[in-house]
Amino acid sequence: MDDLARLADLHGITTAYQPAADVTVRVPEATVRAVLALFGVPAGTPEEVRERLAEAEREAAARLLPPVLVRWEGAPPPPELAALPPGTRIRLDPDEAAAGAGAEWDTGVEGPLPRGLPPGVHRITAALPDGRTAQATLILAPDRAPAAPERTHGLMVQLYSLLSERSWGMGDLGDLAALARWAGRTHGAGFIQVNPLHAAVPGTPTDPSPYRPSSRRFPDPVHLRIEDVPEYERCADRAALADLAVRGGELRRQVLEKGALIDRDAVWELKRAALRLLYAVPREPARAADFARFRTAGGAALAGHATWFALVERYGADPARWPAGVEAEPAEVEFRCWLAWLTDAQLAAAQEAAREAGMSVGIVHDLAVGVHPQGADVWAEPGVHATGTTVGAPPDAFNARGQDWGLPPWRPDRLAAAGYAPLRQLLREVFRYAGALRIDHVMGLFRLWWIPEGTPPAQGAYVRYDGEAMLAVLVLEAHRAGALVIGEDLGTVEPAVRRRLARRGVLGTSVLWFERDWAGAGSPLPPREWRADCMATATTHDLPPTAAKLAGGHVELRDRLGLLTRPAEHERAEDAADTAEWLELLEELGLETKDEESAVRSLYAFLLRTPARLVGVWLPDAVGDRRPQNLPGTWDQYPNWRLPVADASGRPLSLEELVASPRANALLDSVRAGLREGAGPRTAPPGARAV
Q1: Do residues 229 and 342 lie in contact, with contact meaning Cβ atoms separated by under 8 Å?
Q2: Which among 593, 597, 644, 655 has a CA at the least distance from the CA of 621?
Q3: CA dihedral 618, 172, 349, 441 (to 10 degrees)
């Protein structure tokens, strides 16, 4: 594989990886050839490999500058610029609104870069003395992402699962604002973290997973609170609106009182009908002008997004089946732009409500790893996503066969050629209404596990991305938005990746049950040994709620569904031993574990004794919910992404019942008290600034 490995390396494809320090796994040759083919590089025979290798090496030797250069604030100029010969003239043009337009200088006189250039993205043109020219994108990034000015705690919840007495069958943005007001004013919470609110793929049934959206660039209008749309009060067809509201209330009652699952399709059917009525209401001049500004600012990205949804509404979700030369009705495109405008406004209102309630961060939004292969983003950005492959994860201790997430990856070469414009635009959109952004599988900034079509997940290969450029764009956009960044870095992560993320102010994610002394005896990690630059929590949407973990209920659930790969008694014994070790540590620290409720409080008290900058309380933990929101490895066997928050008996709770719950208030009171007592550092880290 020598020549094949060299060719693969030149295209960022790894031919081996290390799932553990003492284990190396070789990627099958067939996979390497298949991934090269995805980059348009035929490598089916030794002759093709030699030809393509020689061609790639010639191109690399002739390249004067790489496609993208990065300079961090305070750092020396990129070495590639410094290596240009004296007499080279460089012209700098902003690739976006930034200072320094048309700047030009001689490297032999003024050096590789002039002083005082502000953060931003620029196009560089270098004219060498011998007549050759080279172009590149230059990213000038702040040294670090913004940091929280103080240690704080907050809630984590899947928004759809949080139904109030005003919801139409699933949680909405009005419910999010209400939760933020209660958590901030009553319990001093600093943030609310929610699931991705990206636009889903239309159709019946809609994929309920918020992590496989049609588009990550725009939110889904299914989250709108209909009564909060300004045109609601001026709609002439009150009877029709009232009828839709009654039917929405019936959906809510079915979930809260009858044990029905959350039915996103039924909710959207009612909300879409109501929004059609409100769209017909003439807009007041100020709102009409605001909408026009929104459309202008959204530009081609918003127009493409709206066009795709308008076409799907008429012709179905598979673009391959659309009639040739089809065009969307202008009125339908405008309707979709209007929905995006309304959703953007309610998202901003939720963040404003959170900050007015005293939250130092506000709403933490979640960015999914990728998008549906037939969704709006793939359609609107042709060529940026790789076709014929999806991303996932190699085998590990939790998934022996590996994972295929069904998401097409971005092509790293196309991203670089575009100066990372797709990433910049995506982040700018999601940061618009975020106090912080959680990046799902943040390791994807550096590499992703590609699985060519027809290949088992275990036989994929890692493809490298320019992590420095991706990280620079992330920090730049976070800096512009004044928002924190939290990376989901669970699982097997290269130590260097965590160090690079921490160096740039990107917080990690630490889940209690996974924090052990893996380099030693494997015992639970004492609180003082936890890292500070993270959000610490007891569980996540992919793990059992804490009450279920304490009782071993998650093992019983997986056993009933046939998901265990070992005898049930072995799983039960191992899980019970794991839990017992943690409870023993709590008792050694003087924390109470006499019953389930006190043990849950003590686990969160433990998190407050770590130096973690943020402590997240999984909202279902506050009421003793035992049902995971998602059970990885299942589809129809379990109602993933369709369960409301419930109490310990499994009875669904409305938002009003939740905020009145003695158990929930007791837990959150104890968490707030733990912070006030000074558990862990309370001062801001060096370089921190308010968000």
Answers
A1: yes
A2: 597
A3: 50
Which residue is it, tokens 């094949």?
A: 4
Listed in sequence order, the residues at least 6 apart from 234 whose beta carbon sits closer than 8 Å to its beta carbon are 281
The count of other CB atoms within 10 Å of the CB of residue 5 is 19
Strands 447-452 and 461-464: antiparallel
Residue position matching structure tokens 């319990």: 187
Query: In degrees rounded to 5, what are phi and psi of residue 365?
Result: -90, 165
495-553: per-residue pLDDT in tens? 899 999 999 999 999 999 999 998 889 999 999 999 999 999 999 999 999 999 999 99
Burial label for 207, CB within 10 Å (0-12, 13-18, 19+), is middle
Strand partners, 219: 198
What distance in Å separates the CA atoms of residue 317 and residue 111, rounded to the nearest whole number? 54
Looking up tokens 């007549």 gives 131
Q: How many CA atoms lie within 13 A of 574 on its CB side?
A: 10
User: pLDDT tens for residues 423-458?
Assistant: 999 999 999 999 999 999 999 999 999 999 999 999
Report how far residue 623's alpha carbon sits from residue 650's, in angstroms, rounded to the nearest whole number: 10
Does this model's pTM top 0.90? My answer is: yes
Q: Which two tokens stand for residue 492?
A: 């097997």
Q: Which amino acid is at 217?
A: R
- Which among 426, 379, 431, 458 is positioned nearest to 217, based on CA atoms? 426
Distance CA 292, CA 45 (A): 56
Q: Please check whether residue 510 is in contact with residue 607, taking contact to mean a CB–CB distance below 8 angstroms.
A: no
